[in-house]
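Progress note, sequence design subtask.
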């Protein structure tokens, strides 16, 4: 296992040069804000750090470090952000970075392509569950515990100086790790390299599963889409599970390797998550591919060979090929993300559907209510009609005389010849212009008045005078009565009852189209308002314009005879 610096144009790796001079620091994968700062500083395109990605101490300023009290060991401060990079040199890019190292490792059939600055080996498998939490992991607690065990071993203390070898459990190291570690030297790497940035992603797999926020329990099994997505999940998980299966027989392993060699695209890191998923559907493609066996422990990392004796580790060697594992994990994690989004979509569409159903039910309910209300209104209408008919019937029954008295045809009654001299007064009259009120004790005022003078064939006229306020139209003074003529004379009697509590009789003469009368007797209610009127005179005349004029004067207990009213009416009905 070799720890390399992930920085562009930096070839530092563990064991190279002065051991104590350079330390290596993990990317703060758990601190997204700080991780972004690191990534921004590193400036590597299309590259995602894993828990086995490191930056060497040369990219940090001196004040980024503190020293551990006990042994004065260098620790990276928890807020440190790298700032020293040699980007001016031709950037080799994510794939080109560390090409020298990669040239070595690319000799191996399963060597990782384009992934640098990381601890090569199966550790990447751990990174998949931590970098891209797999929701299905929630369904497989046992496996997660196992993974967590590995991670726990890996994580150690955040700011403890760890050797890369310590950072990965020995039982799970790949053959390449073994060789690389040998190459790097077995002496105390713990003293020379520091993974003190902390294993940000090495938390328990359970917490990774929690972070996904999704489990199969969230999706009822009824949906076909969910079943499909669930099967995708299962498939994705099974690819991971495959890596943890017991070792396959060597022949089988070789066959698998052959098949993968025939299908290079299955492990092509250029595939996107979806493509990766699509290409990984054949069972062999997601199955880890074994390294080419070799008996030589001194073989180059590119020619990684598992120790023959370490049969227990065989499957790890087989499954943890840096190439296949990383690609498989990338594909699987990408697939998981895709599946998660499908799940979310499926879930939200189901929610929308249920909301629509709920709204539909409400609308149907309201429609039902509306229908019953309409029926009630219709019933009420028919009830009202029936009640009206009944009322009419009752009225007819209770007023037999009225019906009998009213002539069936509304013909105007023939005027009694006695009242003929007053016929010019007949009709409905409206004030035009408004009447004018005056009196020494009063402020001048105006009023409107409607006058009805009619006959019913009797030798008298019926009259009503109804005054209104000119602005508010509120009723004011009202009086009604009769005008009689002494037969064969021009003597007229004017009998009136007023709303002010006065009843009076005025008498006078009609001459042509002018009637002049004066009070004969005035009576009032006991509580009539003072000052009491003592005398009243009136004059009616039809003027040359055909308008009716009335002038009223009065004397009260306090005022002598003075004009109180003058008004002109225009005729509105015959
Ligand atoms: C022949 C009929 C009427 C008689 C005998 C009569 C009599 C009187 C008397 C005695 C007063 C009290 C005066 C004072 O306080 O010194 C009065 C006041 C007044 N009258 Fe007449 N009036 C007559 C018709 C009318 C009519 C048609 C109007 C029209 C609206 C009118 C409007 C008023 C008003 C506004 C006052 C002052 C406020 C009040 O005392 O109610 N009167 N009237």
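Output:
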């Amino acid at each position: 296992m070799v720890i390399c610096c992930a920085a562009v144009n930096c070839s530092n790796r563990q064991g190279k040069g002065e051991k104590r001079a350079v330390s290596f620091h993990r990317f703060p994968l758990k601190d997204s804000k700080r991780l972004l700062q690191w990534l921004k500083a590193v400036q590597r395109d299309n590259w995602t750090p894993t828990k086995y990605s490191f930056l060497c101490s040369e990219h940090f300023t001196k004040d980024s470090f503190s020293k551990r009290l006990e042994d004065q060991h260098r620790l990276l401060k928890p807020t440190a952000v790298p700032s020293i990079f040699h980007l001016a040199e031709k950037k080799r890019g994510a794939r080109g970075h560390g090409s020298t190292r990669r040239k070595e490792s690319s000799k191996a059939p399963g060597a990782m392509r384009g992934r640098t600055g990381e601890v090569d080996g199966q550790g990447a498998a751990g990174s998949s569950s931590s970098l891209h939490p797999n929701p299905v992991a929630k369904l497989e607690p046992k496996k997660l515990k196992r993974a967590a065990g590995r991670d726990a071993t890996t994580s150690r203390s955040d700011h403890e100086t760890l050797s890369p070898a310590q950072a990965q459990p020995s039982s799970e190291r790949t053959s390449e790790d073994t060789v690389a570690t040998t190459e790097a030297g077995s002496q105390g790497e713990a003293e020379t390299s520091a993974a003190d940035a902390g294993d940000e992603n090495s938390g328990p797999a359970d917490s990774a599963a929690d972070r996904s926020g999704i489990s199969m329990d969230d999706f009822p099994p009824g949906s076909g889409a969910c079943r499909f997505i669930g099967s995708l999940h299962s498939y994705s998980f099974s690819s991971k599970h495959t890596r943890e299966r017991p070792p396959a027989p060597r022949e089988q392993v070789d066959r698998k390797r052959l098949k993968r060699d025939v299908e290079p695209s299955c492990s092509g890191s250029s595939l996107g998550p979806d493509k990766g998923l699509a290409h990984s559907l054949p069972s062999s493609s997601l199955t880890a591919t074994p390294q080419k066996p070799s008996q030589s422990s001194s073989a180059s990392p590119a020619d990684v060979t598992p120790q023959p004796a370490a049969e227990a580790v065989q499957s790890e060697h087989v499954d943890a090929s840096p190439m296949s594992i990383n690609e498989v994990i990338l594909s699987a994690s990408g697939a998981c993300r895709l599946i998660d989004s499908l799940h979310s979509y499926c879930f939200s569409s189901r929610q929308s559907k249920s909301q629509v159903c709920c709204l539909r039910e409400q609308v149907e309910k309201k429609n039902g209510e509306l229908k019953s209300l309409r029926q009630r209104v219709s019933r009420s209408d028919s009830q009202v009609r029936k009640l009206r008919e009944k009322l009419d019937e009752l009225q007819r029954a209770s007023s037999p005389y009225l019906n009998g008295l009213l002539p069936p045809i509304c013909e105007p009654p023939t005027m009694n010849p006695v009242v003929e001299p007053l016929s010019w007064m007949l009709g409905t009259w409206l004030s035009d212009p408004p009447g004018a009120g005056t009196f020494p004790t009063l402020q001048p005022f105006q009023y409107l008045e409607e006058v009805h003078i009619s006959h019913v064939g009797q030798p008298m006229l019926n009259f009503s005078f109804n005054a209104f306020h000119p602005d508010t139209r509120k009723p004011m003074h009202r009086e009604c009565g009769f005008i009689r003529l002494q037969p064969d004379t021009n003597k007229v009697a004017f009998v009136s009852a007023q709303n002010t509590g006065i009843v009076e009789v005025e008498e006078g003469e009609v001459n042509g189209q002018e009637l002049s009368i004066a009070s004969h007797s005035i009576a009032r209610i006991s509580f009539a308002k003072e000052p009491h009127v003592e005398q009243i005179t009136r004059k009616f005349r039809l003027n040359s314009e055909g308008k009716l004029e009335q002038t009223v004067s009065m004397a009260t207990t306090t005022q002598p005879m003075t004009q109180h009213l003058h008004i002109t009416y225009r005729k509105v009905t015959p």
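The radius of gyration is 56 Å. Work on this subtask will continue into the next period as scheduled.
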